[in-house]
Amino acid sequence: MGNLATDLQGTGARWTVPQLRLRVADARHLNPQSLMPRFHPVRLQEAPGQRVGAAWRGQPVLSAQQVEDVVAFLLTLK
Fold this sequence. Notes:
Layout: H1 11-14, H2 17-26, H3 64-75
C-alpha cells in the first residue's frame, strides 16, 4: 500500500492525553483536510466516495475503550 503515515516516535512527548484523544477520535477537528478517518464518532453520513458496509453503517470504528487504549500506547512513544 505504501507509507502515508508520519513517524509516531515522540508522540507521547509532544501531546497531552486530551490532545492525543482528540487526534485519535477525529483529527478533522484540528485539520478539516486531514486524511485520517474519524475513528470514534458515529458516522451518520459517509463522506463522498466513502463506502461503508451495511453492518458497520452508523457505528464508530473504535469503541471509547479502544480509543483510550490507542492513546495509552501513543503515550509510551517518547
